[in-house]
From TrEMBL:
Iron-sulfur is among the record's keywords: no
UniProt binding sites for NAD(+): 9-14, 32, 90, 95, 117, 139, 270
Record-annotated 3-hydroxyacyl-CoA dehydrogenase NAD binding domain positions: 4-179
The species this protein was found in: Faecalicoccus acidiformans
Domain 3-hydroxyacyl-CoA dehydrogenase C-terminal: 182-278
The enzyme's E.C. designation: 1.1.1.157
Important for catalytic activity, annotated site positions: 136
Keyword field: NAD, Oxidoreductase
Entry-linked Pfam families: 3HCDH, 3HCDH_N
Family that this chain belongs to: Belongs to the 3-hydroxyacyl-CoA dehydrogenase family.
GO molecular function: 3-hydroxybutyryl-CoA dehydrogenase activity; NAD+ binding
The name this protein goes by in its record: 3-hydroxybutyryl-CoA dehydrogenase
Classification via PROSITE patterns: 3HCDH (PS00067)
Pathway(s) per entry: Lipid metabolism; butanoate metabolism
Amino acid sequence: MTLKVGVVGAGTMGQGIANAFASAGNQVTVVDVKLEWAQNGVNKIFASKDKLVSRGKITEEAANQAKANLKAGVYEDLADADLIVEAVLEVMNVKKELFAKLDEIVKDDCIFGSNTSSLSITEIANGVKHPVIGMHFFNPADRMKLVEVISGANTPAEVKDKVIEISKAIGKTPVEVNEGPGFVVNRILVPMINEATFILQEGIASASDIDTAMQLGANHPMGPLALGDLIGLDIVEAIMDVLYHETGDSKYRASTLLRKMVRAGKLGRKTGEGFYKY
Ligand SMILES: NC(=O)c1ccc[n+]([C@@H]2O[C@H](COP(=O)([O-])OP(=O)(O)OC[C@H]3O[C@@H](n4cnc5c(N)ncnc54)[C@H](O)[C@@H]3O)[C@@H](O)[C@H]2O)c1
């Protein structure tokens, strides 16, 4: 199956998603606010391919084939796309406005996929003419195997089936998810990280002992606080707030320690300090 795929948003996730589709033989056009930003994203994918070649992980031929499948473009270049996956800002209106604009450009049977981590697919799709589905990839998207395929209230079953098939064709393992806050992974993972911050806040154990406990006691590759630092504590807080506001359930309240860390700008690896110093 060779598809024409548009990836909108050439940041961390857009690059990984575009890379995954291109490496599996699909024709990928990457779009961002400015052509130059899209080109920058494509250049970074090229550089990551070159690095894999220099380390002997992939052949030069495979890298060149993937590169030949990738180009930067503008919205109008997506007119004949079979699938468009957006990985723009995690802001409802930005995603809705993007799909409203694409509605006027793309062919009738184009599918719109959203890589949102926490927003409602049903709400993103509201008022959009083309079918919308969640395609939630995980960072780094070119390597992580999972795709949560999320159906909103109005996502047609045949679109879901097609997207499951497409996900498998690019070497991913899709799981079918009916829309619900946090989907599956974040609904389980993020409250676990938050719980670890409560344990720290209550003085029950030190940060490193909490992480060691979960690594050795639950066989997790990384402790929950180190993982929170990797994801970004602002993101962890934002996902807790979505879970809390969508359900009104107090079990999803963020800890006061987590909020304090975010207010102090201690967001984890990206700011050089979170529960650990980097
Ligand atoms: N980072 C993660 O681990 C992760 C994991 C899964 C899902 N997500 C989701 O993926 C999406 C993107 O996250 P990211 O971490 O790649 O962000 P990022 O900030 O690295 O990249 C976002 C990109 O989108 C571009 N952009 C913003 N508005 C745009 C618009 N209207 N049209 C075109 N391009 C636009 C920006 O210029 C930027 O290049 C978000 O919805 C996020 O929640 C992120």
